């Protein structure tokens, strides 16, 4: 006698807390901060739901769930052009044009 179990665990979005809160770590699309439910399915029918512990980021393009700390940071501020050189976008101090990083604050230029 054989018994086959067709089922599994899945995460589903319950509530979108903040739309466009970050970027997906897999595809780079916009990701939302969401509350989610874990769902046990047996033969593709939801049997039991329970809430997730902490909010997660969810990409609507590739349907990936990931922690908010892993999302891509916003792009760094760009440096401003001046007639006598460049200024750092973070601290505003003048920087030589050949530098890749600000020598004062360490921000990428």
UniProtKB/TrEMBL annotation:
Zinc-ribbon domain: residues covered: 23-106
PANTHER family reported in the protein's UniProt record: DOUBLE ZINC RIBBON PROTEIN MJ0416, OS05G0435400 PROTEIN
Protein name from the UniProt record: Uncharacterized protein LOC115739213
Protein species of origin: Rhodamnia argentea
Gene: LOC115739213
């Amino acid at each position: 006698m054989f018994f086959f179990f067709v089922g599994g665990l899945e995460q589903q979005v319950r509530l979108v807390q903040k739309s466009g809160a970050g970027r997906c770590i897999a595809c780079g699309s916009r990701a939302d901060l969401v509350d989610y439910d874990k769902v046990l399915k047996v033969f593709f029918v939801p049997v039991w739901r329970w809430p997730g512990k902490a909010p997660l980021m969810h990409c609507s393009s590739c349907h990936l769930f990931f922690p908010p700390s892993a999302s891509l940071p916003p792009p760094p501020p760009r440096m401003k052009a001046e007639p006598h050189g460049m200024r750092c976008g973070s601290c505003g101090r003048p920087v030589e044009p050949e530098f890749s990083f600000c020598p004062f604050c360490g921000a990428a230029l």
